[in-house]
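Intended use. Records like the one below are meant for learning the mapping from a protein sequence to its folded structure. Do not use them to infer anything beyond what is encoded.
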Amino acid sequence: MLLLALLVLAQHRAIVYTTAESTSFRLTPTDTLTFKPSEPTSEGKVYVFVDPRKTFQPLIGIGGALTDAAAETFAKLPAAAQEEVMTAYYSADRGIGYTLGRTNINSCDFSSDMYTYVTEGDSALTSFSVAHDLRYKIPLIKRAMTTSGNRLKLFASPWSPPAFMKDNNDMLHGGHLRPEYAHSWARYYTKFVEHYRKAGVPIWGITIQNEPMATQTWESCIYQAADERDFLKNHLGPAMTRAAMRDVNIMVWDHNRDLIIERALTIFGDTAAAKYAWGMGFHWYEDWSGGTQMYGNVALVGRLYPDKHLVFTEGTPANFDSTAYGRWSLGEAYGRSMINDFNSGAEGWTDWNILLDERGGPNHVGNFCMAPIHADTRTGKLLYTNSFYYIGHFSKFIRPGARRIVAAPSRSMYLTTAFVNPDGKVVVVVMNPTSQPGQYNIVLGSTSIPINSRPHSIQTVVF
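Structure written out for the chain above:
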């Protein structure tokens, strides 16, 4: 039956969508091809071998962060531009079909001010209120939910507890959670979930702490591996259980791939902590100073703990530069990471801010950066970087519930991953990050199709 299904599949036409530098191609259908019997393989040709019978992890979703900065920028836009942003990101038909999102608990650097949900010193949390978020952020999230057809899964991350709960009495500059406030801080998460639910925003998951090993000039808080383990085991996990919130998926780490192994061994290796941990989030900034991205560490976590889930929770390619909107490396950073992360076992992939203004903000500490879409809030004009299209080569075509399948190139110049969707359609993504054009052959069983690859391009092949 499997062989018959492959033969039937091979008779189908394949549509090729292309985004390429120095062309007008942006998620553009550039070819329609039909699989034909393959010639014997040759060392002189390049192949991408695909086998839908060999499946790996499912896809939860792909998306971006709905921060205060994104929400405040969105609110400054005229109605037509707002509708364009929503359609571009969250419509599966007319946009790139985002289905995963992240937001911040308390303020983060991409907020225009510093805030918490309680008054100073209120460890009993009697003053807890998300009124701050009702002005901009929650309306943006609810609009994204609606545009997505209510397919959006949202997870939330704190950058810092309130200052009075920390040993440095400051939401900024690192510091640590004071032990005497661990119980109160754990309840803070449950309050957040409860209040967001009341506001009409279900929370699918939480991470314990954004970047727990980084002392930042913005909101931050340090947890060594044992600290995070013990907070989860003794406080957060029990608090979520008592609040009947075991359906909210708790992700640990939420930082770079470099130290992910230590965190996994410490938390997942402790059965009392691991029972509360659904999975692990990770970022890409370990190569920020020119090093190599450590995809192998993610794959190793997957092999060590196959019952846990891996989600890429944040990445942004550059500090803000008003001359960088057309820089092709922005999109290629996404393509390279997404292909390698999915091939390493990631089930979800989340970009940083979906939208920023003409300065790369707002940001209350001046940590401006790039986003796939920027808005000039003075004119209402939207500026799309090629990052938007590179992400779209995955999110538009690989839908929640898809399973990764075998896809292997015969030459290292091409990067590839592939999924089979719940409706049976196969999606193969092939990226050429080099300055050389070429041709590759997608091989399916005893059939194949030849596809021309432009320099610095990404292609999605659907059949």
